[in-house]
Amino acid sequence: MKLQKRGKTISKAEVLNISTHGMWLYANKKEYFLSYKEYPWFEDAKVKDICNVELLNGYHLYWPDLDIDLETDSLENPEKYPLTFRKEQ
Predict the structure, then answer these.
(1) What integer is the mean pLDDT of 15-35?
(2) Which of 16, 56, 77, 81 is the right S-S partner for 60, CB 3.0 to 4.6 Å?
(3) Cβ-contact 22, 14 below 8 angstroms
(4) Angle formed at CA 65 by CA 15 and CA 61, multiple of 5 degrees
(5) CA distance 47 to 59
């Protein structure tokens, strides 16, 4: 039996809005708000870098220009991920 070539991935992620407080992200038919307080590494990023987001394997969000990885589960269940990044003052 010969394996067929995989088709195109139809799952995608999209940044819907960027504000002074954070950004709205759409992935897996859900919207998420990522506040700069909880996700500070996006705060000073360029808009084009924030908008360049990929959804890998249906659950892995990746911003290649920023080298940031997040799983959608961490957005849906933040209580399961108690360690957070803190900016140095």
Answers:
(1) 96
(2) 56
(3) no
(4) 50
(5) 23
Residue 19, token pair as written in the block: 């504000």
How far, in Å, CA of 40 to CA of 1, rounded? Answer: 50
Residue 45: closest CA among 68, 73, 70, 78: 68
In contact, 42 and 13? CB cutoff 8 Å: no
Rounded CA gap, 34 and 16, in Å?
11
The answer to whether domain 13-80 has CATH 3.30.2020 is yes
Q: How far apart are CA 27 and CA 20, in angstroms?
A: 21
Confidence of residue 36 (pLDDT cuts 50, 70, 90): very high
User: What residues are paired with 32 via a beta bridge?
Assistant: 25
Tokens representing residue 26 in the block: 């759409």
pLDDT above 80 (res 74): yes
8-state DSSP, 59: T
Predicted TM-score (pTM) of the model is 0.78
